[in-house]
Predict the 3D structure of the following.
Amino acid sequence: MTDVWKPMAAVANREAAVADAAERLARAARDRQPCAPVRDLLGPTDLSLAYAVQQRLNDGRRARGARVVGRKIGLTSPSVQRQVGVDRPDFGVLFDDMDATGLPAVPSGWLLQPRAEAEVAFVLARDLDADDLDIERVRSAVGHAVAALEIVDSRVADWDVAITDTVADNASSGMFVLGEQRLTLGQFEPRNVTMRLYADGVLASEGDGAACLGDPLEALLWLARTAREFGDPLRAGQVVLSGALGPLVPTPPGVTVRAEISALGPVTATFSPAEPADPEKPEKPDKPGKPGKAVQSSADPDDKEPEDQT
């Protein structure tokens, strides 16, 4: 594999390309209007340039007060890698305002084109910043794991994304919900889990741990090495969404999605009904209910057919 951060020469004015792509995506998020892909500015394969856009946008979020709480891994499915023409996963950054755990409902008005996928989420007990990272060191760094719903979203219209589009757009991150049951790696093996994901009670997606790079721990190892090479290692206390266990499911306003991951148990989220164009940011309750148990009236999803994984 070639290094994802190795500069490429296809784009003449790289600084201007990063600035223009970041502004296009930021405007889409701010105005809640999906934009055209940014690969016309970055090229279709220059991951170094795409990660530079992601970093610029994430630096802006930090400057506005958002706090980093972890990372997400995307493109863990070989079929999706082939679809977008890459031989590796990608990653994005999780911020505290993306965590919908404990909210009464996922705020649909924050999202543009959301889809849900079920994952194993790892919570780290130790930093992963050593030079010689391997699977055993990664395993020993995991404090516990929980079932998770990642709500992926895209600022790019109609999900018309190539690899540079999704990487620049923070790996198409949206929000996430964590389940309640915590297990250590001494209590289960992530690669052995099975998953079923329901939308309003109808089975919409299923899969297993092998769908995530063969083993969610292998995905975590890839991320730990990559994050260290980028100079921003994974740290104790951070949450890592390790990648989809099955196909994505559309999540229109009002739908309830529930994932059941063997050993780790269920995680559920209800999406709020359609909201005004500029909804106010909801606050988490002082004494939230059980994480991942948001309950609200449901409506039939527009599309119950499984889609590709992210």
Q: What stands out?
A: Helices lie at 14-31, 39-42, 47-63, 78-84, 135-141, 163-168, 216-229. The chain has a mean pLDDT of 87.
